[in-house]
Please model this.
Amino acid sequence: MLEKISSEAKVGAFVFIGIAILVYMSIKVSGGLEFGGEGYELYVNMPSAIGLDLDAAVRVAGVEVGRVKKIELEDNKAKITLKIQPHVIIGADFSVALKSKGLLGERYVELIPGSPGSPTLMHGDRLTRITSYTDIETLVTVLNNVATDLKDITSSFSGVLGGEDGKTLVTNIAKNIEDVTFRINALVKRNDEKIEHIVLNLNQFSSSLKDVTNAISRLVNANEGTLNESVNGLKTATAKLNETLGKLSSITAKIDDGQGTVGKLINDDATHKKINKTLAGINKYIDKAESFRTYVGYRAEYLTESSDTKSYFSLRVQPQKDKYYLIEVIDDPRGSVETKTVELTPGTSTVITTTTDKVKFSAQVAKRFHNLVIRGGIIESTGGAGLDYYFLKDSLRFTFEAFDFDSDTKPHLKAGLKLHLGKYFHMAAGYDDFISDIGLESAYFGLGFEFEDDDIKYLLSGGPPINM
Model:
């Protein structure tokens, strides 16, 4: 059968088989990826694709993962289409770079991985991160520029040193060096004698120093007895010091054993507790004493109905921030008004009104709850109670008082506002005894001041207040 096949047919079959094997090997070497094969496409725009050919390799960490399918121009940049093997995952933060195999090898596309958790690119996505490397052409251009600069420098040197002028310049430099050397040599020769004198003086100084050392040695030998006495005195002092240290050691040993008052004080836990309890009580007492604040004040209220001025002298003792005691002396020009009915004749009577006790006093206890203060006690020499409500960080206060609950007259009611003008001064306005049935109701306007004990010390001493 084979004998009937011609030699030309055998050669053709052999060539066909060889081509098939060659194609198969090419596909295996290229990773089995053709333009029409499986995989997905990615795009990248680069400033230049010089040296990059179609079907160039696409690599990740040196491993081929795809091929360059297309290179075209888009917006004056090279748009490169990459065909990536289907099982290869490319992240959105991968960087793209053009590299070469060796110094003059073929160019390929290198994909540089980013972070592991970045999103995965799909078919038709675009790579946006470009990494530039210096290519061979750029390197050759830089080397060419360096060579040109070196040529210019050598030309400059040649222009300076070449010809008769250059020779003259070199000759003058050599002559100047020779002249400087000659002058230095002459200077040394002229000062030979001075240098000898310096050496001689050094020798004499050494001899003098040796004589002084010998004299000191003789002085020490002559006073050896005195030195021995000093050494003996030092030994005696050392012995006394050792004796003292021994006594101190004995005392500390007794203290460690708990002997004596100091030993019990240090080693007895019960003593510690008693002392700590006592100190805690002292500290608590001192803290309470330091927390006490005393305020002295005065205010005057002008009564518009009677054209009189009502004066208040106050002493406020504040042991706590939310509690205080208030004592006041009041000079009221209207005095305490008393009324009584007098029978003139059977069946007829009259009401007699008398005014007494123009000087009154108040003694109140006050407790604060947030912005509300409740106080009570004696108000203007009668029983009563009051409310204060603070606004605007305590700079404005509404006040209301009710006192003098006499059965013959209506209670004395007073309401008003007090505005603080800084730390010390304030002004007030309101209505006093506004439900009076004997004609004592009156609007009032007032001014006043209040000083803390430290402020009074400052005013009296002329020094700054002491803040504990």
User: Anything to note?
Assistant: The longest helix spans residues 224-256. Residues 202 and 208 are 10 Å apart (CA to CA).
